[in-house]
Structures are given as structure tokens and as C-alpha cells.
Amino acid sequence: MASQASAGVYLQFESDSDHDLALKSLDLPSLGVQLRAVRDIDGQQIATVFVPERSIARFAKKFEDYVNENDSRWGTPKNRLLAESIKDIHLATVRSFWTDTDDQFPGAGELAWWEVWLDGGDESAEAFRAFAEREGLQIGQRALRFVDRVVVLVYCVPEQMAKALEQVDALAELRRAKHSARFFQDISTVEQHGWSDALLARTTMAGDDAPAVCILDSGVTNSHPLLADSLATADCHVAVTGWPSQDRDGHGTEMAGLALWGDLASTVESAHPIQLHHRLESAKIYDEALQSADPELFGAITLAGVSLTEVQAPHRQRVFGLAVTADDKGRDNGSPSSWSAALDNIAAGVDTADEHRRLILVSAGNNRPANADEYPDALFTSGVHDPAQSWNAVTVGAMTELDRIEETALDGWEPLAEVGDVAPMSTSSASWEAQWPIKPEIVMEGGNFARSPGGDIDAADSLSVLTTHSRPDQRLFATTNGTSAACATAAGLAADIVAQYPTAWAETIRGLVVHSARWTPAMLQKLGGVAGMTQRERLVRVFGFGVPSRERALKSAASEVTLVAERAIQPYKKDGSRTKMNHLHLHDLPWPREALLALGEHDVRLRVTLSYFVEANPARRGWAHRHRYASHALRFDVKRSSESVAQFGERMLKLARDEDAGSRATAPGDDWYLGYRARHRGSIHQDILTVSAAELASQGMIGIAPVVGWWREAPSHGRYDDVARYSLIVSIETDAQEVDLYQEVLANIRVPVQVAVETE
Fold first, then answer.
1. Which alpha helices (H) appear in 369-433, and where do they start and end?
2. What pLDDT sits at residue 666?
3. What is the pLDDT of residue 278?
4. Torsion angle, CA of 586/589/594/600, rounded to 10 degrees?
5. Which of the residues 213, 249, 340, 498 has the least number of beta carbons within 10 Å of its own beta carbon?
6. How far is it, in rounded angstroms, from Cα 388 to Cα 393?
7. Is CATH 3.30.70 the classification given to domain 1-92?
8. Which is it for strands 457-458 and 450-451: parallel, antiparallel or unpaired?
9. CB of 401 within 8 A of CB of 378?
10. 180 contact partners, CB below 8 Å, separation of at least 6
């Protein structure tokens, strides 16, 4: 039973529709009042809160003060934000702790495995085990420990779980335990068909005119029942004449399943309806059995595959997913190859008369450590594989949330990577020279390895992701892992963003994917201990900018507002016998100044992402002066609170001139996470500025300046007056609950003022 000292009551707080609760005011450590779980249902926010018996009266007084007293400073009722955010209060029930989707909640009398999230650590887990033993419940042997939560598994009906509310004070969340990929691998083919049929029955497929993910791989078996309605035979292409169309390697079909459905282990077992927003295409660019012993120009084969899809469906929007990389790792060390340069030019549309831009996602390539001692140190020396050093492609590394080992043959083994950390198979750009791009830009689920007590490592189905098998007549499901799996999943995410924003540029979709990424707690633990910017850049070259979020990329929340500007700039111009810089742009954004001022000294984060495509010049002639790799380059910075607009423009001009001259004297960066030099690698730049809200209120202007590229330095090519496109993505983020940034931006919204300033 719960001890008298910790006894209390669980309450459920409900907000009005489309309004948030004042969550910070429901989490009061000084009173022992703890916010345990939050969920959103149809626009209504619901919070479950534990209130100790000793604090019930003091907590209730906050609502009495709202009725009876005014705040002496503001003249408004005390605790107004807390009280007015609440529509209703109830005693909590089992459903109050449920943070999965409603359709996953077990029915009355239904036995199910539950994930029980407990507040605290081992003591909470032992208290729950004692409860389970008293009630005769089956409980899992393992527990997961996080910063302030411990998770255990229990097998029971909802009526039995309800008793925990009376006997366990540490309840925080309840979720349905998930089947791993191993479960679906172990069942019979007949059972696999049953799960597949149930998934298809509740799924609405995307229409023929929907965006597509084009799988550039070993082909795809489009007869698979989970792929057939999304991949027409007419959309299956072969880049090399004479190759068979079928997927004999299996890799392409595995990638197709992930690009369409994500990890099937979670998708198949869910009961809620699914609406697919994109389709599939396939361009076979690789066949291991028929690959010539002679070298191949993979860039040319890739371009052929891209062209075939566009000829077949010229008006369809698409994202390209390339999870095939060279196996001679470490050879290029970030420098361009013919293949990576071809990807850059394919993305920039150099092969088309109208310079049709394309979004390409490429896997970082896999590293397989020989033993547990090599992880994570090998991540800093195992370089990204060709062609993932491409400047214009989004390179995808691997992380993992999978740490539950179910194979009996691996009893005593432990997961190699912790939850949220970079996956053992991932590669990085940490060992490259600083001039090359930050790679990968993002990471997504790529599975984990198991580690034996002796330090051996091995893959396991339960630590892998589930996808479609290339021979559906034998098996429907297969497991896979690594950066290939991460890339395919990321391509599906990008296609969903295209479906939501069909008129957005490829540069913008690319920018939104990267801009939506965040570091996990495990990554932040490593990043948070970094003192210098050089070390920060080194770690970003392993983690990228984190794990992208579909929800974040598709919408702005009240406490996180995102602004997007798509613009064109002419970086250079001819002046007599020489070429020189032409314009810089100053963007005056619809800043929520009043809302920021109201936050005062609260910290806010300004996140800026600048995305553009370059034309490649990969000949190795020093990559300096007229032999630079990139056709052009752009830089961004933000107006300081102490600067006038004129002073800011002058500083941007000086930054451009100094970088052009090779000077390092005026490059800013002391307040930014990465800093001016470190962030400006490649052709997508992101950085985060953390300042007080009051200071940010006067910083609503961002400058875009060109610096040198071969369009300017090699005038004989006649490209000095070309126009370049870019997408600027800006977000303001705050943890404060007291202010709505979004509404003020809506009130101020207009086309951001773009001022073209002559560089002379």
C-alpha cells in the first residue's frame, strides 16, 4: 500500500477546445504537486496531476485566490493563467493516464500488455512489482530507466489496472506495449497475411496524382500486397538496358515498405484508420548479381533512373530516396566525387532546360563495429560513404529508440546503444576537413545491436525495424536496419510534407525536414557538456541536427512559430572587365514583438535555416578562387538589438567582403550554438541563438549575403548574372506557457520586406 507520507490524489484537468492548459502551474515541486501525463484529444488538452494529501489545501487555495484576490502588479485575478485555462477537473481514472491513441485502450475485460510509466526510479518500480504480486499479475522482468521515469511491463485487464490508482502513488503514464519486429518475424505466413489484410482494410491509399517517393535502389517487388496499390507497374523502371526489373537483392523492396508505411511493427499493430498521402515509384540502379566487374559511372546511372520516372509521370511531384552507397568507405573524406557531384547537379536541375529542382535523400552509409569497445568512438572516425557527401542532398544517419531484446538466445545480452542515441551502424563527417558540409543533417530510426557480457555484438530482429519482404509468396515481412532504413523512412516524411505544401520549392521541403529536427535527451546530454564551438561542430557532425518531426514540420504551435520565405537573388554581376558581388537581402519579418516583450527575461530560442542548391564544379584543382566547388554561396545573420537597419546592412556587407578576401576578423558567432563559420558549410545552414525574449524583440531582421563562388570567379562560363533561389526558415521557440506567439504573428503577417542592397 502507499505510505501515509506520500499518499495523495490523482486529478484530471481539461482545457477548452483549441486552448492549452497552464502546464507549468500544474507542476509545483515545492508543494509536491506533480504533472504526470499530458495528452491532446480533438484540440482539447488533458493533464493528469498527482496532489499529495499534505498539499491539497494549499493547492486548492490557488483557485480560491483567483476568485477572491487580485495580483498587486497587474491588477488581474491571482493565478489567472492557471484558473482560466481549465474547463473542468475530475478525479483521475485509468484512462486519465493513457497517452497512446484512444483506439489502443484495451476494452473491458481485455487482457493486454501495458507499458507502465512510473515517476521516480528503482523504488517506484519495486513498489509497482509489489502491487502486481499482490494482485497476481504477470509483470515483465526488465525495466527501462530515464531521467525521471522508469518503465515496466504488466499483463492485465483495465479493471485490474484501476486498482493501481488506489495503491501506487508513482503512476505517470500508461501505454499499450508494442510488438517488436521479432514478433512478426516469428509468426507464420498465414498469420502475417492476417495482419497485412487488417492493415489494408483500415487504410485509405493516396490517389494517382499524389506525390511519390522514388526508390533509387535494386528494384521493388510491386506485387507485394502492401505495395501493390501504391506502386504501378508503369512506375517501375530499370536504368540499365538488359537488367531484369525484379528485386533480386531484396533491399529495394525493404526500402519501399519503410518509405510508404514507416516501421511496420508499430503500423501493423495499431487499430486506428490510416490515410496515406504519397505513392511510390522505383528506378532500379543496382543489381548485385549483374553489376559489371568494370567500374561504373553511378552518377550517370542515377541520372538515367531519375529521368525515366520524370518522363513517365512528368507532372507528379516526387522525392528521391537513395539508400545505395559505395563500399570503399573513407576514400573521399568529404571531397566531392563524380557520383556526389552528379547528385548535386541532379538536385539543382542542371540537366534540365528549366532547372527543375529535385529533393534527394541519401543514406550516410553503414559502419559495423567489430565489438562493443568500438562504439561510440568509431562514429568519429567512420566517414560518410560516397555519394552522401553531396552538398544538395539530405544525408540521413541512424539513431535508435529500440532497446528491448526478446530473443531467448540472447539472454544476458544488453542493447549496445541507449535509447535516443546514435545507432551503432551510423557514420559521420567528424573526421573530415572543416571546409566540407556537416553530414548527416538528420538521423532517424536505424535499429540497434545487442552486446554480450563478453563484449561481442550482433544484430537482432527485436532491435530492427519491420518492412516488406521482396518475396511475398514466401514471407510478407522482413527486418532491416542501418542508415538505409533511416533514409527510406525520412523520404516518406519528406513526401508527406510535399503533400501538405504542394507548391513549396524543393529547397523549402529540404529546409523544413532539417529545421524540424531536434536532438533527443541522450544527444543533448552529450551536446550539453560541450564547451567550445569546435567540439560542438564535431558532435553535430555525428548527430546532425537531430530527429525530424512530421508534426513540427507541418504546423506552428502557440509556443513555436515558424516563418518561411522563398526568394531569388542575383549574387553577382559583371562590371566592365570584372565580376563582383551584386545584392544582399534584408528580411524584415512579422515579429511578435509585444508577445516577446511580455516574456521579458525568459529565454527564447531563435532557429534559422537557410537552404539553397549549388551547381557542382568537382574537378580537383584546389577548390579555391576560380576552381571553387560551389557555383555560389550564401550567408545569413541576424540584426543585433543594438544595431540600426543601416548598421546591420553595413555589417552584412563587411562580412561578405571579409570572407571574400579570406579574412576571419569580423566573423560573429559568440552567441550562436555553432557560430558563423561552423554553420556555413555546404548549402544548408542552421544555427540556434538563445537570448532573452526582450532582447529578441528588437532583432526581427535577417540578412542574406552572397560570398564567392565559381559563377563569379570563372566568368568565361557566362554564369555571373545567373539568379539563385533560396528558402529562409525561421522559428521562435519558448518553454513559457504564458504567451501566444502564433496569434501575434498572424496579426502581423505580411510578405516579409525584402530589401535588395547594392554591395558597393
1. none
2. 45
3. 98
4. -60
5. 249
6. 7
7. yes
8. antiparallel
9. no
10. 265, 402, 404, 406, 461, 462, 463
**Amino acid letter, residue 575:** D
Assess contact for 46 and 40: CB atoms under 8 A.
yes
**Backbone φ and ψ of 456, nearest 5°:** -70, 155
With CA atoms as reference, report the closest residue to 112 among 167, 49, 156. Answer: 156
Tell me if 427 sits within 8 A of 374, measured CB to CB: no
CA distance 82 to 24: 9
How far apart are the C-alpha atoms of 297 and 142, rounded to whole Å? 50
| Ranges assigned E (strand) in 402-538 | 414-415, 442-445, 450-451, 457-458, 465-468, 477-480
How many CB atoms within 10 Å of residue 242? 6
Q: Do domains 1-92 and 104-177 have the same CATH topology?
A: yes
Cα separation, 431 vs 434, in Å, equals 9
Which cell goes with 699? 532583432
Query: Rounded distance, CA 161 to CA 153, Å?
Result: 12
684 within 8 A of 611, measured Cβ to Cβ = yes
pLDDT of residue 291: 63
Write the secondary structure of 678-723 as one string of H (helix), E (strand) and C (coil). Answer: HHCCCCEEEEEEEEEHHHHCCCCEEEEEEECCHHHHCHHHCCCCCC
CA dihedral angle for residue 271, residue 275, residue 277, residue 281, rounded to 10 degrees:
60
Residue among 720, 661, 709, 674 nearest 344 (CA): 709
How far is it, in rounded angstroms, from Cα 235 to Cα 230? 10
Closest to 396 measured CA to CA, from 321, 292, 450: 321
Query: 244: how many CB neighbours lie within 10 A of its CB?
Result: 12
Give the closest residue to 442 by CA, choosing from 503, 384, 386, 387. 384
Q: In what order do the strands lie in the sheet with 318-322?
A: 236-238, 279-284, 212-217, 318-322, 359-363, 394-399, 442-445
> By three-state DSSP, how is residue 260 classified?
helix
N-to-C CA span, the chain = 78
Query: At 506, which helix (H) or strand (E)?
Result: helix 506-515
Residue type, 266: S
Distances (CA, A) of 701 to 510, 609, 625, 684: 23, 14, 31, 20
Q: Give the full edge-to-edge strand order of the sheet including 560-569.
A: 560-569, 724-733, 603-611, 684-692
Q: Where exactly are the structural domains of the chain?
A: 1-92, 104-177, 182-539, 556-758
Classify 104-177 by CATH class: alpha beta
Within 8 A by CB and 6+ apart from 318, the residues are 211, 212, 213, 214, 281, 309, 310, 358, 495
Predicted local confidence at residue 611, as pLDDT: 98
Estimate to the nearest angstrom the gap between the alpha carbon of 328 and the chain centroid: 28
In CATH terms, the superfamily for domain 182-539 is: Peptidase S8/S53 domain (3.40.50.200)
Total residues belonging to the chain: 760
According to the model, what pLDDT value does residue 333 have?
A: 85
Residues 369 and 424 sit within 8 Å (Cβ to Cβ): yes
3-state helix, strand, coil in the chain (%, to 5): 30, 25, 45
3-state secondary structure 552-616: HHHCCECCEEEEEEEEEECCEEEECCEEEECEEEEEECCCCHHHHHHHCCCEEEEEEEEECCCCE
Q: Which amino acid is at 365?
A: G
pTM, full prediction: 0.81
Other C-beta atoms closer than 10 Å to the C-beta of 526 total 15
